Inverse folding.
């Protein structure tokens, strides 16, 4: 390969090179997006090891789907969608949301801010499914219909969990809302 082609570092050029089997191009794509994908996966799962697995699986899927990726479309949204779907699959396999009553109870009667380590952050106070719904809806822009479809539930299920989750988060932020426990 000539030096001019190896010097191309734009995302479309890297995709073209990766399709031709250029390992350094694939590596450059990985290094350009891995941290953001890991951050999303960690936010959704709350588990560093699971997040690392999701990053690896996401890039393996990208590698297997290189020919289908469009050069004129940014890669990161596709990677984020794959990573979010992998995180949801983990939650579904783990049956973290099998008992809706338990999930709703956890949202209503979860630990108070005083008993949760501040380093874990506000979202970590939510059960995994609730945390995932909040992040994907509020930060990634997924609709209730998309969430419901992906979780195999109804849009009203998504709306209910999201509403309770946001209410709980507001309660943690607003002093004197009655969420304090002794």
């Amino acid at each position: 390969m000539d030096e001019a082609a190896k010097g191309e570092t734009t995302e479309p050029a890297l995709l073209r090179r990766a399709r031709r089997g250029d390992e350094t191009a694939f590596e450059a794509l990985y290094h350009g997006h891995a941290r953001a994908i890991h951050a999303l996966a960690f936010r959704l799962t709350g588990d560093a090891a699971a997040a690392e697995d999701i990053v690896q699986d996401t890039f393996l899927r990208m590698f297997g789907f290189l020919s289908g990726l469009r050069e004129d479309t940014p890669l990161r949204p596709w990677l984020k969608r794959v990573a979010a779907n992998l995180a949801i699959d983990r939650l579904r396999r783990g049956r973290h949301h099998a008992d809706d009553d338990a999930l709703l109870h956890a949202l209503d009667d979860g630990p108070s801010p005083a008993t949760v380590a501040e380093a874990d952050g506000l979202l970590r106070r939510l059960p995994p499914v609730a945390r995932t719904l909040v992040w994907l809806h509020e930060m990634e822009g997924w609709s209730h219909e998309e969430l419901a479809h992906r979780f195999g539930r109804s849009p009203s299920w998504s709306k209910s969990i999201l509403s309770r989750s946001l209410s709980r988060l507001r309660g943690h932020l607003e002093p004197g809302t009655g969420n304090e426990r002794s």
The two ends are 68 Å apart (CA to CA). Residues 111-120, 177-182 have pLDDT under 50 and may be disordered. The chain has nine helices and no strands.
